[in-house]
Amino acid sequence: MTDHAAAAASTTDAPQIPAIAVPLLSLAAFGSGVSLRVTDPMLPQLATGFAVSLGDASLVITVFSIAYGLSQLFFGPVGDRYGKYFVIGCAALACAVTALLCALAPGFGPLLGARLLAGATAAAIIPLSMAWIGDVIPYHQRQPVLARFLIGQILGLAAGVLVGGLAADAGNWRLPFMLVALVFLAVGIALLRLDRRLPASARHTQRAEGPAWRRMLSEFGQVLSQGWARRVLLAVFLEGAFLYGAFAFIASHVHHQFNLSLGAAGAMVMLFGLGGFAFALGSATLVRRLGETGLSLWGGIVLALAFGTIGLAHDWWWAVPACFLAGLGFYMLHNTLQIHATQMAPERRGAAVSAFASCFFMGQSIGVGVAGMLVERIGTGRVMLAGASGVLVVAVAFSAGLRRRTKPR
Predict the structure, then answer these.
(1) Under the phi-then-psi rule, with left for phi > 0, alpha for psi from -120 to 50, and beta for the rest, what region is 345?
(2) How many domains is the chain built from?
(3) What's phi and psi for 199, nearest 5 deg?
(4) pLDDT tens for each residue of 26-48
């Protein structure tokens, strides 16, 4: 099916899709966001409780991200084959199990193993949700719908750092994982029940031909054969590395630098999510005024200024507006990248968006890993500045490429 045909089909079928379909996906993304960021403010407590360094404690983030990134290569074709909405529902139930394993982990090694499994099971949710929205929503309506869907992830990221910080202050890092398990259980059941009511066009599957590994290689090969797709994938890989290499240590930075409690540090980092929420509410206006090129460029500039402020500030209150602006800038840049991910290969949208998410989280895992090795040597402040410089270069390069691509010929 061509993208024009898909758009026509989605316009026809849109009234038949239950209104709760996208909000349920957003709730699943909320659980994924909490899982992703809940350990950030816990790092100092995990380091003390398990007698490991702060850098070693950050492995709970790194292993999650590695598993999340690599598993994209599996779930994209699986979603295309068995139906994206159905696979998301199954993944949510699997996330409930892996979150419970994290809560019950008896030591640091088992916790790392459980986090690895949690990253693998969460991998299906956000990229396949984006791909499903790309299947059923026409391109000209897609960015606001994607922005509204991402409210769930944004609130999840914010809730993750807040709950993680409060749990760390209370000396009970296990409770947040139990709460996440309950959220995923309820959402997974609701998604699978709704999947039965979706119209055929929203549940479409692709007939399997040949060995699974050969189909997967073929689908990803079609995505990578396009130059613009390679540029988008490189940009999101570097964005993930520079952004989250710094972001993962914001709570630790304000905790150590300004002597704030981990709960207060988590609440401060939660403002990142509030900045993303502000973008979601104003996305239509921002896109109309700045265009995709301006949105990505200014997003990178705002994000870089925010990280630079956090790294250089001598008083804790500077980090309050900086965290908010970091969230706003990130979603300005990242949402533009996501829109292009849904259009890289419309006939292989599941594989394309999964490759996008894989690159993002592989970049994140490498960025957090490198930052974890450097943080003991250069300090958290310089890690913030390195992240600021990196995201600025990525934003400038991507916006320049986008300008050349959209320039009339």
Answers:
(1) beta
(2) 1
(3) -65, 160
(4) 999 999 989 988 998 888 888 88
